[in-house]
Structures are given as structure tokens and as C-alpha cells.
């Protein structure tokens, strides 16, 4: 199973976008406190549109609590990572893959990263920016994992208007 982990998220719109991506991809979301917003903030609900009630998520008071309750492979997304996000094999759907993203202002603390340098990933980009927006980064990474899993249980056709909608 795939998991997205947000370490101390600060911006409700980013978290709302990530919530929507998690619902769309059947991915569990893990939220590590403290947040830079109230979880029921109107901005958060607006970003998540009508999908928040379908979200599979869990909250934690700190990173230690998260680690104690979740076993699997941890991947840390950081601009300091030395391996591209595409260099790992995420194809085993029986393995829990945790993709951990840090707070928007400072990322994941160095104290956490230095304990597992082999799993510190970077999305390749030019030197013109420090990093992509966290919600964009989540989408890039989770869809790479899903691509390797042949989009495990996701729909390839639009379910509401039908596969032949464009031909009508």
C-alpha cells in the first residue's frame, strides 16, 4: 500500500490539494502535528472540495508516534536527496511505501534525514528553484509509484459519463 506522510504541514491549501490527490489514488494520508492551520479550516475544505469525507487519514502528535505505529519502507523527499524518485522499485503492492514530505518552510529536519540517507529522494529540477510546491511533489511521486504498480485498482475510464463520451 502507498502512504503519503506530511510532516508538520503549514499551508492549508497544499494539504487540501494533497488530500484530494490521496482520495483520487486510494492513498492513505498521515498528518504529523503541529500544523500551521486548523484542520477544519475553510481553506482546507475548499481545497479538498467534496472529497474529504472519502479520505483515509490518521493524525500523530510527533514523528516518533508515527514511526511507532507504521512499519514499512520510508522514503524522504528532500532537495538534499542524492537519488531521483524514479530510482527505487515501488512495484510490490504488498509492501507499505511511506513517502514523507516536510513542512513548506524548512522541509524534513536534518536529524530525521541523516538516519536514512539511502532513502532520501530528490525530484530532478533545474537550479532556478529550490523545490517544487509540496502538493505538486506529492502528485509526481505517488503517480510514479502507481505507474510501477500498473495503477493498482485505479480506473482507466471516466466512470460518470462513460468511456464513449467523446464519441457521442
Task: Please describe what this structure looks like.
The protein has helices at residues 12-25, 42-48, 63-69, 110-113, 134-148, and strands spanning 2-7, 28-32, 57-60, 73-77, 83-84, 97-101, 120-122. It is α/β, with parallel strands linked by helices and 168 residues long. It has a seven-stranded parallel beta sheet. Helix 1 (12-25) links the parallel strand 1 and strand 2. The chain is globular and about 55 Å long. The termini are far apart.
Q: Biggest sheet: strands, sense, closure?
A: 7 strands, parallel
| Secondary-structure element series | EHEHEHEEEHEH
Summarize the amount of helix as a percent range.
25-40%
Strand order of the largest sheet: 3-2-1-6-4-7-5
Cα-atom radius of gyration: 16 Å
Number of strands: 7
Low-confidence parts, pLDDT < 50 over ≥5 residues?
none
What overall form do the CA principal axes indicate? globular
Average of per-residue pLDDT values: 91
Short note summarizing the structure:
The chain is of the alpha/beta class. It has helices spanning 12-25, 42-48, 63-69, 110-113, 134-148, and strands spanning 2-7, 28-32, 57-60, 73-77, 83-84, 97-101, 120-122.
Task: Based on the model shown, name its key terms.
5 helices, 168 residues, alpha/beta
Map the helices and strands.
Layout: E1 2-7, H1 12-25, E2 28-32, H2 42-48, E3 57-60, H3 63-69, E4 73-77, E5 83-84, E6 97-101, H4 110-113, E7 120-122, H5 134-148
Parallel strand pairs: 1-2, 1-6, 2-3, 4-6, 4-7, 5-7
Helix pairs in contact: 1-2, 1-5
Amino acid at each position: 500500500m502507498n502512504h503519503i506522510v506530511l510532516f508538520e504541514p503549514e499551508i492549508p491549501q497544499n494539504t487540501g490539494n494533497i488530500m484530494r490527490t490521496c482520495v483520487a489514488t486510494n492513498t492513505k494520508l498521515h498528518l504529523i502535528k503541529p500544523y500551521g492551520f486548523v484542520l477544519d479550516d475553510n481553506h482546507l475544505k475548499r481545497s479538498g472540495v467534496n472529497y474529504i469525507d472519502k479520505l483515509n487519514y490518521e493524525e500523530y502528535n510527533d514523528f516518533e508516534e508515527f514511526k511507532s505505529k507504521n512499519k514499512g519502507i520510508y522514503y524522504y523527499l528532500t532537495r538534499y536527496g542524492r537519488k531521483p524518485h524514479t530510482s527505487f522499485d515501488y512495484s510490490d503492492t504488498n509492501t507499505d511505501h511511506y513517502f514523507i514530505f516536510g513542512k513548506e518552510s524548512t522541509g524534513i529536519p536534518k536529524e530525521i534525514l541523516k538516519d536514512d540517507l539511502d532513502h532520501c529522494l530528490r525530484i530532478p529540477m533545474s537550479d532556478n528553484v529550490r523545490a517544487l510546491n509540496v502538493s505538486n511533489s506529492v502528485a509526481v511521486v505517488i503517480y510514479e509509484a502507481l505507474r510501477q504498480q500498473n495503477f493498482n485498482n485505479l480506473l482507466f475510464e471516466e466512470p460518470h459519463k462513460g468511456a464513449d463520451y467523446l464519441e457521442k
